[in-house]
Write a structure and sequence with these properties.
single chain; alpha+beta; 22% strand; endopeptidase fold (from Nostoc punctiforme); globular
């Protein structure tokens, strides 16, 4: 998926950079972004059990950051659910928890909503780097 600064459409995956990581959500409208937890910035320390799927408006989601919108490849478009199915699924998850930074985070959530598969490129990139570093030491 490529990321661009453009106006999002209903059902789009959106993200905002928070330092070196990204926080992801499903765009419904400027008044409704569905996300797994809040972006980790200047909020009290929360435990994983406190993090749930919730909605905010776009301004709260961005917190002064820059909006990036996912632009799917042709193959990704073929695998993606229809817009209403994406939004319906995301809404059905509001209030659910089970947050785990490695296996069930905001990026896993949006990919599950759109493609039906939990996937997190950020975690996979870190795993690949750690494995490469370990191979160099063996």
């Amino acid at each position: 998926m490529k990321w661009t600064m453009q106006t999002p459409k209903k059902g789009d995956i959106i993200r905002v950079a928070i330092g070196d990581i990204y926080h992801y959500g499903i765009y419904v409208s400027d008044d409704e972004v569905i996300q797994f937890g809040m972006p980790p910035r200047n909020i009290k320390m929360m435990t994983a059990t406190d993090v749930v799927v919730l909605t905010t408006n776009i301004d709260v989601f961005l917190g002064g950051g820059f909006l990036e919108v996912g632009s799917m490849s042709f193959t990704e478009k073929l695998k993606a659910k229809k817009t209403d199915a994406i939004v319906d699924y995301a809404r059905s998850r509001i209030g659910t928890g089970g947050y785990n930074i490695l296996y069930n985070n905001c990026e896993h959530f949006v990919n599950e909503c759109v493609f039906g598969v939990k996937k997190c490129d950020q975690v996979e990139d870190v795993r690949a780097k750690v494995l490469k570093d370990l191979e160099g030491k063996v």
